Amino acid sequence: MTAAPVPEHGYGLPHDVSVDGFRVDELIHFTLAAITVIFAVVAAAMIWSFVKHRGGPALYSHGTRGSIALVVGAVAVVLFGVDGNLFVHTLADMHRYFWNFKRAEASPGAVRIEVNAHQWSWDARYPGADGRFGTQDDVVTTDDIRVPVGVPVILQLASTDVIHSLYLPNLRVKQDAVPGTITRLTFQAKTPGEYEIACAQHCGPNHYKMRAVLTVLAADAFREWLAAAAEDARRAYDPEDKEAQWGWEWRRFEP
């Protein structure tokens, strides 16, 4: 790990450095606004009821048609106006942006990375100049993932032991790494810098060690780093070191 990210300041979510991260923030802000309005309306109704009926005993009633219609109408507003809106927009954003792996892989300059999670670190593998995984010029890093700014990044995740969860709070994305399967994650960074990688799944007694750094570089700086790292990997390649040759054939997205 080259450096630690600068700590966040203030309250709320970490600052957004993702092209599509604002979509998550909009849903969160809408939820907070809706909850605030609902709370204010319910609190006002309770205060009004307390004041109006403060002089007499409470009486049970099945309600009038008007009161029943009011309650049903309020439930319908919350169900369709709040929950329904969140449900529809969440599905649309997930399929158009956060789960659109076909579009991401078809984008010019898209970066593919295999990530192997294990107790207690993240190993990342990049294809070298040949564009293929599992060859002598693969670049392998530990707790240090570097990506270029302004292009889609596609991660394929695996785990060698237990369930881990790769979380990029500054990019508003998270995905589990599950033993025995390959999961996917895609994002596009818009601001160069160093950002935290966390594990969002309690994976054992040293879970806290699953902290790493995502470095977003300018396009030229990323190409220079990857080329130099690939050349170093080619020179250091040892065909007898089977443990270092983890990886898998890249799995193309199938809708």
Tell me what the structure shows:
There is one protein chain. By secondary structure, this protein is of the alpha+beta class. The chain has one domain: Immunoglobulin-like, CATH 2.60.40.420. It is about 35% helix and about 25% strand. It contains four helices and ten strands. The strands form two sheets. Strands 3-2-1-5-8 form a five-stranded mixed sheet. A five-stranded mixed sheet has the order 4-10-9-6-7. β1 and β2 (about 120-125) form a beta hairpin. α1 runs antiparallel to α2. The longest helix has about 35 residues, at about 65-100. The chain is elongated and about 90 Å long. The model has no long low-confidence stretch (mean pLDDT about 90).
Give the helices and strands, then pairings.
Layout: H1 21-52, H2 65-98, H3 101-106, E1 111-118, E2 121-126, E3 139-142, E4 144-148, E5 153-159, E6 164-168, E7 173-177, E8 183-187, E9 193-199, E10 212-217, H4 219-236
Parallel strand pairs: 1-5, 4-10
Antiparallel strand pairs: 1-2, 2-3, 5-8, 6-7, 6-9, 9-10
Shape: elongated
Strand order of the largest sheet: 3-2-1-5-8
Bin the helical content: 25-40%
What is the average per-residue confidence, as pLDDT, rounded to a whole number?
A: 91
Query: Would you identify the CATH architecture?
Result: Sandwich
Radius of gyration: 25 Å
- How large is the count of helical segments? 4
As a percent range, the share of strand residues is 15-25%
Q: In sequence order, what are the helices and strands, one letter per element? A: HHHEEEEEEEEEEH
The CATH topology turns out to be: Immunoglobulin-like
Q: How many structural domains in the coordinates?
A: 1
- End-to-end Cα distance, whole Å, is 36 Å
Which residues sit in consecutive blocks of at least 5 with pLDDT less than 50? none
